[in-house]
Structure formats: structure tokens, C-alpha cells
Amino acid sequence: MERLELLALLLCGGVFLFGTADAVRYMVGGSSGWSEKVNYTVWAQDKHFYTVDWLFFVYQRNQFNVLEVNQTNYDACNAEHFLRNWTTGAGRDVVPLNVTRDYYFISGNGFCYGGTKVKVHVEDSPPPPASPKNSAGGAGAVSGRRGAMLIAASTAAIVVASLV
Ligand SMILES: *[C@@H]1O[C@H](CO)[C@@H](O)[C@H](O)[C@H]1NC(C)=O
Ligand SMILES: *[C@@H]1O[C@H](CO)[C@@H](O)[C@H](O)[C@H]1NC(C)=O
Ligand SMILES: *[C@@H]1O[C@H](CO)[C@@H](O)[C@H](O)[C@H]1NC(C)=O
Ligand SMILES: *[C@@H]1O[C@H](CO)[C@@H](O)[C@H](O)[C@H]1NC(C)=O
């Protein structure tokens, strides 16, 4: 009886892992990170962001920061009236994109004027696992994540097999 319960638990775990395999953590700007080297309009334009995804800002912590602003202040690079300061101080900030709306982020310290600003449009439902996201930057993250899920699921299967 105990074994059966454990088996059921492990199988459920496997299903759960597969079910959540769609979330993507996007490193903003790709390998260049949050800097002055990237056109973030171009970076974002081929991506689809969903309410399960995250943005990951990686940058020189003594120079840049991550401030969420509204559209007016994004356009004007006005860092004084930010909606939320996502800066933690480590130069590595994670932002959950958990609401269906447009998000606007800028760097203060004048860097916004140099192009360190990004707008992302967040859509409601993630696509079914059968249709992977068609984006250059996200593709690696998706397959990496899926790979990890597969490993986790196969480990569960091996544990199950050894119990039976
Ligand atoms: C970024 O690229 C877009 C599209 O090519 C262009 O319209 C825009 O002027 C560029 N922005 C900067 C800051 O160079
Ligand atoms: C953004 O906030 C400013 C105040 O900082 C306000 O004047 C402006 O109307 C707001 N813009 C939008 C699009 O909400
Ligand atoms: C944002 O928060 C960080 C960490 O608390 C702080 O060091 C920084 O001064 C804040 N930035 C602004 C513009 O308020
Ligand atoms: C979205 O995430 C932010 C940051 O963790 C949190 O403050 C906010 O309450 C969340 N909103 C929803 C609708 O979950």
C-alpha cells in the first residue's frame, strides 16, 4: 500500500513537472545583458512573453539599475517617478511577468538616454507544450528547461522502477 501511494505521488510529480515546462526566464538583452550595447526594441520584438515568464536583468551593479515606470516616463526617460524599484543591489534582478499588460523598464543614472530601456507586452496564456515558442533568445531556455524536466521525470521513473 505504501509503495502504491509513493508510486502515485511520483507519477503526479512527473505530470506536474511536464505541466510547468513552459515558463521561460528571459535574460534581458541576451548575453550582453542590461547595458548600452543592446537595442531592446529589437531584442523584444521576436519574443512572446506570457504571464508565467520572468525577466532576468544582469548588469554592472554600480552603474545601472532597474526601475519600472509608466509609458510616459519610459518615453521621456524620467526615472524620478518610477512605479517600482526592482534593483536589489546584486546586479541580478528577477521580475515576474505575472499580469497581462505592457511593462516598461528603464535604467536610471542617465543610461536610459543611451538606450537602456525595454518595453515588453505580456500575453495571457502560454502556448501548449506541443507548439514551442518561436524565438531566438527563448529557444535555448525552453529546451534547457524541458531537458531538466525530462531528467527529473526519468529520475522519478527510475525510482518507481526500482520500487516495483
Ligand atoms: C532600435 O531599432 C529600431 C528598429 O530597427 C529603431 O527604430 C530604433 O531607432 C532603434 N533604437 C535605438 C536607440 O537605436
Ligand atoms: C505616468 O506618470 C506621470 C506622473 O509621474 C503622469 O503625469 C503620466 O500621466 C503617467 N502616464 C501614464 C500613461 O499613465
Ligand atoms: C532601489 O532599491 C535599491 C535597493 O534597496 C536601493 O539601493 C536604490 O537606492 C533604490 N533606487 C532608487 C532610485 O530608489
Ligand atoms: C506579481 O508579482 C509582484 C512581485 O512579486 C507582486 O507584488 C504582485 O502582487 C503579483 N501580482 C499578481 C496579480 O500576482
UniProtKB/TrEMBL annotation:
Residues 24-124 form the Phytocyanin domain. GO terms for molecular function: electron transfer activity. Residues 1-23 form the signal peptide. May act as a carbohydrate transporter. It comes from Genlisea aurea. This is Phytocyanin domain-containing protein. Belongs to the early nodulin-like (ENODL) family. Gene3D superfamilies: Cupredoxins - blue copper proteins (2.60.40.420). PANTHER family: BLUE COPPER PROTEIN, EARLY NODULIN-LIKE PROTEIN 17. GO terms for cellular component: plasma membrane. Keywords: Disulfide bond, Glycoprotein, Signal.
